[in-house]
Design brief:
The chain is mostly beta strands. Among the domains are: 24-89, no CATH class; 97-173, no CATH class; 248-300, SH3 type barrels. It has four helices and 19 strands. The strands form six sheets. Strands 7, 9, 10, 11 and 12 form a five-stranded antiparallel sheet that branches. Strands 15-16-17-18-19 form a five-stranded mixed β-barrel. The chain has a three-stranded mixed sheet with strand order 1-5-4. Strand 16 (258-266) and strand 17 (275-279) form a beta hairpin. The chain starts with a helix and ends in an 8-residue tail after the last strand. 17% of the residues are buried.
């Protein structure tokens, strides 16, 4: 019985596939003589900086097959008995959650942030510096951030080469938010009793570099109606118009050295630099004019009064 088992094991070993030797790790874009000598000491007679080939991207292998090695040995008068394939690859290492979070925190200096990774590219990466630039951090639909956002990063290796990585994350930082106490109507300046400051957590804004309370937006007006209880986010409030629809405006018409001034009625509103519609009360014609300041508009035209 024992003899039968021994014979079976011998036959199994004979026909079992040979265990492939591990690839030689090479950091850099080129495979040199010293790298081949590490795998096959017989090639130590090669100059160490002899260029044998280029490295493939990380995650791939470059294999020198036996006939190729035999030809190389013959070229350099090296005796090579029973050559076998030799492969080279970039040294790779796992990417942990802790390392990802550490790199992300480095891109958010001065902020007390809480980062949770929902999903990440945890495949092996080449050895190098991991970075997640702040500008590649996705934006949530709202500052409350209910769903993870994509944050693209890279491992910087072999000089300035980049190996892409990514993660879907929840990012929270302590913040103070402005909340509308009552409905804020568009075009009407915001007054202190109409807003309150609320402590909470929010997604860090692009300009945030530290925690400071938001300034009360006095003198600004809502660009659209903001309901009571809603957060007042950047862009919701804008400077008031210099001219509103229905205002009486001072019109200056310039045509070369000639000047003409009269009073008209604004048919639309805008701030300095905007073009608005203005109605001439004498001719009842509507024309375009550029807002120059509070209740002042300018028309640059042909002969004085033409078309007005």
């Amino acid at each position: 019985m024992t003899l039968r088992i021994l014979v079976a094991l011998c036959w199994a070993a004979r026909f079992a596939p040979a265990q492939a030797p591990a690839c030689v790790p090479v950091e850099g874009g080129r495979i040199l003589g010293r790298d081949l000598a590490e795998a096959l000491p017989v090639f130590q007679v090669l100059p160490s900086d002899t260029l044998l080939g280029n490295m493939p991207p990380p995650g791939s292998k470059r294999t020198f097959h036996a006939p190729e090695l035999a030809s190389l040995a013959q070229r350099y008068f090296i005796r090579l008995d029973s050559p076998h394939d030799v492969c080279f690859e970039w040294p790779m290492e796992p990417l942990s959650h802790d390392r990802i979070i550490e790199a992300m925190r480095e891109s958010l200096p001065g902020l007390d942030v809480r980062i949770e990774i929902a999903e990440a590219s945890l495949y092996p990466v080449p050895r190098g510096r991991l970075e997640f630039p702040r500008e590649t951090l996705g934006r949530p639909a709202s500052a409350a951030q209910k769903d993870p956002v994509l944050w693209r990063g890279a491992v910087i290796y072999s000089g300035d080469r980049r190996y892409a990585v990514w993660a879907r994350v929840m990012v929270k930082t302590t913040c103070e938010r402005l909340i509308a106490v009552e409905t804020l109507k568009p075009g009407q300046p915001v007054r202190p009793p109409q807003v309150r400051v609320e402590q909470g957590e929010c997604f860090p804004s692009p300009e945030q570099s530290g925690q400071s309370p938001p300034g009360l937006p006095m003198g600004l007006v809502p660009a659209r109606a903001i309901p009571a209880g809603a957060e007042i986010r950047p862009g919701f409030l804008v400077p008031p118009n210099d001219v509103d629809r229905g205002d009486a405006v001072s019109v200056e018409v310039r045509s070369g050295a000639a000047r003409l001034a009269f009073t008209a009625k604004a048919e639309s509103g805008g701030r300095s630099g905007d073009f608005i519609a203005v109605r001439n009360p004498s001719s009842n014609r509507v024309f375009r004019a550029r807002v120059e300041g509070k209740d002042k508009v300018l028309v640059q035209t042909g002969p004085p009064g033409a078309g007005l």
